[in-house]
Design a protein that fits this description.
Strand content: 35-45%
Number of helices: 4
Largest sheet: 8 strands, antiparallel
Distance between the termini: 31 Å
Order of helices and strands: HEEEEEEEEEHEEEHEEEEEEEEEHE
CATH topology of the largest domain: Thrombin, subunit H
Helix content: 10-25%
Number of strands: 22
């Protein structure tokens, strides 16, 4: 099985870039082919699209081949994949938790709305809260030691609700974002002046592009006091360690918005384009599960049914949830789980 998966990964990786250039395609991973609603058990290249369309509505270059080398493809409709820092205010664990704050409840950088406290990790004697960059570090727009609130601002958290300070985050790389070049800024202003003189109501903006990819959306916050937090995730308990997710693995999580949910890993080694409020970020090596989350659940730790942490939830759509593999998260931040 391991050899078959390794070979399939090589095929997937060889075609991923080309597939991601096709219209509506937002992800490419490995999963079991589904035929007429039934899991066939056949390993295939799963191509995620925002919306399925008839072949006649697609140009030849936008059609997904039925086979890639010796692997079948399976096109699945996932909708747009969005980062989940926030969402509609719905019933959930959004209260202020004191004197001890458990993983699974609402937290957030003071400039965001609300996400989820995932779990406790440590580096030697130092203790940290683990969640997403876009939950604890405001999607890169932060400063050292920024305050972290519990509950998050969307759940009425304010200055008196500080429980931690931002300690470290893995910067997110976007495919395009506003330029920070003085020369580009001068050129743009000049072009807009000329356009205005000529009667144009449009405005030019400068952007910088990147071909960089991401592996994790992760950050750490140092609690104001070690006694303020516990490693016991609501309704689940303390993780027993880190594990790796595989196709078909049953998983569970507790998050700020949807509380306790269960699902199944449907794709591994997925390459996905995720929308951060208009900015696009490409992620590689991700896990995809059935839908177990909504906005505000970002930062939740996802565990198998034996309580091994397999992933950090950070994005999704109405039909799919996206996880960073937990071993990647721990390595990127140089920490270990508190067990």
């Amino acid at each position: 099985m391991a050899e078959r998966v390794a070979k399939a990964k090589r095929v997937k990786n060889a075609y991923a870039d080309d597939l991601l250039q096709k219209r509506n395609v937002v992800g490419v991973g490995l999963g079991h082919k589904i035929r007429r609603g039934e899991d066939t058990g056949e390993l295939s290249v799963v191509v995620s699209v925002t919306r399925k369309q008839p072949l006649a509505a697609l140009t030849p270059q936008d059609r997904v081949p039925q086979r890639l080398d010796d692997l079948r493809t399976d096109v699945v409709e996932t909708g747009v994949l969005r980062a989940f820092p926030e969402g509609p205010l719905e019933p959930g664990p959004r209260d202020r938790w004191r004197p001890v704050v458990p993983p699974g409840v609402s937290v957030g950088h003071y400039m965001i709305t609300a996400g989820t406290f995932g779990c406790l990790v440590h580096r030697g004697p130092e203790l940290f809260l683990l969640s997403n960059n876009h939950v604890l570090a405001n999607t890169n727009d932060c400063a050292d030691w920024d305050p972290i609130l519990q509950p998050g601002p969307a759940d009425a958290g304010g200055p008196d609700d500080r429980i931690a300070r931002l300690a470290r985050y893995v910067p997110l790389v976007f495919e395009s974002e506003p330029a920070d070049c003085e020369i580009a800024d001068i050129v743009v202003r000049l072009l807009n002046v000329i356009g205005g003189l000529l009667g144009s109501h449009h405005r030019v903006t400068a952007t910088k592009t990147s071909r960089g990819t991401n592996r994790v959306d992760a950050a750490l916050a140092r609690p104001l006091s070690p006694n303020l937090v516990t490693p016991e995730i609501l309704k689940i308990g303390t993780p027993i360690g880190a594990g790796s997710g595989s196709l078909g693995t049953q998983v569970q999580k507790f998050g700020r918005t949807t509380g306790y949910t269960r699902g199944t890993i449907t794709q591994i080694d997925a390459t996905l384009r995720v929308d951060y409020h208009g900015l696009k970020a490409l992620f590689t090596g991700q896990l995809v599960t059935s839908s177990i989350s909504r906005g505000g659940d970002s930062g939740s730790v996802v565990l198998d049914m034996d309580r091994r942490a397999v992933g950090l939830l950070f994005a999704g759509s109405p039909v799919a949830t996206i996880l960073n593999p937990m071993d990647e998260v721990l390595a990127a931040l140089d920490v270990e789980l508190v067990v």
